[in-house]
């Protein structure tokens, strides 16, 4: 099983490689792609995430169960074929482990329900491990977000982003 959860630069050029069509990329043909989405009280973000899942995806697994805002019901309404994976253990790491264990695809792409990874980049994620690269990193959706990040973590994240951009010239 190949796990891909992020997007990387192409080894041959210094820019991201992403197919522009809705069809599965040629280099991913023959592989079933599972999308694992850990979610806790993400009802407000699910429309932005689930509406961007490519139609050729083998399965979408929403992992959680402790949500009290209707996350599971909204996911089922927005994406009728979504598989719900219930978990008794709290935390994103536990949710990912349970989702990966329940996935039946040969390639697993993790997309969070907060919109930190754009599902439209899934075609590029599929190609990354098949070309031998790991890990890869995706882009944040402009509509995504969360309200559970403490001020000190937010400031720390901003400082790290600033340093990486300063040192490596990112935008």
List keywords for this structure.
single chain, 171 residues, alpha/beta, Spore Coat Polysaccharide Biosynthesis Protein SpsA, Chain A, 5-stranded parallel beta sheet, 5 helices, 13% strand, globular, disordered N terminus
Write a brief structural summary.
The chain is α/β, with parallel strands linked by helices and 171 residues long.
What's the structural blueprint in terms of helices and strands?
Blueprint: E1 2-4, E2 33-38, H1 46-50, E3 59-64, H2 71-78, E4 83-86, H3 92-102, E5 107-110, H4 122-130, H5 151-168
Parallel strand pairs: 1-5, 2-3, 2-5, 3-4
Describe the structure.
There is one protein chain. This protein is 30% helix and 13% strand. α1 (46-50) links the parallel β2 and β3. The model is unreliable at 1-22 (pLDDT under 50). It is an alpha/beta fold and 171 residues long. The chain is globular and about 45 Å long. The protein has helices at residues 46-50, 71-78, 92-102, 122-130, 151-168, and strands spanning 2-4, 33-38, 59-64, 83-86, 107-110. It starts with a strand and ends with a helix. It has one domain: Spore Coat Polysaccharide Biosynthesis Protein SpsA, Chain A, CATH 3.90.550. A five-stranded parallel β-sheet has the order 1-5-2-3-4, with helices on both faces.
Q: Going across the biggest sheet, name each strand in turn.
A: 1-5-2-3-4
Indicate the percent of residues in helices: 25-40%
As a whole number of angstroms, the C-alpha radius of gyration is: 16 Å
Q: Span from first to last CA?
A: 33 Å
Total of helices: 5
Give the biggest sheet.
5 strands, parallel
Structural class: alpha/beta
Give the SSE order as H and E letters.
Answer: EEHEHEHEHH
Whole-number mean pLDDT: 76
The total number of structural domains is 1
Flag low-confidence runs: 1-22
DSSP strand count? 5
Residue fraction in strands: 5-15%
Any idea what the CATH architecture is?
A: Alpha-Beta Complex
| CATH overall fold name | Spore Coat Polysaccharide Biosynthesis Protein SpsA, Chain A
General form: globular
The CATH class assignment is Alpha Beta
């Amino acid at each position: 099983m190949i796990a891909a959860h992020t997007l990387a630069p192409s080894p041959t050029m210094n820019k991201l490689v992403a197919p522009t069509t809705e069809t599965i990329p040629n280099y991913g043909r023959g592989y079933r792609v599972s999308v694992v989405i850990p979610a806790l009280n993400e009802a407000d973000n699910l429309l932005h995430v689930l509406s961007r899942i490519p139609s050729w995806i083998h399965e979408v697994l929403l992992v959680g169960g402790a949500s009290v805002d209707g996350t599971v019901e909204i996911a089922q309404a927005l994406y009728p074929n979504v598989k719900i994976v219930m978990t008794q253990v709290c935390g994103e790491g536990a949710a990912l482990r349970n989702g990966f264990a329940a996935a039946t695809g040969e390639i697993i792409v993790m997309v969070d329900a907060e919109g930190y990874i754009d599902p439209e980049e899934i075609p590029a994620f599929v190609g990354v491990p098949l070309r031998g690269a790991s890990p890869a990193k995706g882009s944040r959706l402009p509509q995504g977000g969360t309200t559970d990040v403490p001020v000190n973590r937010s400031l720390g994240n901003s400082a790290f982003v600033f340093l990486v951009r300063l040192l490596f010239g990112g935008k």
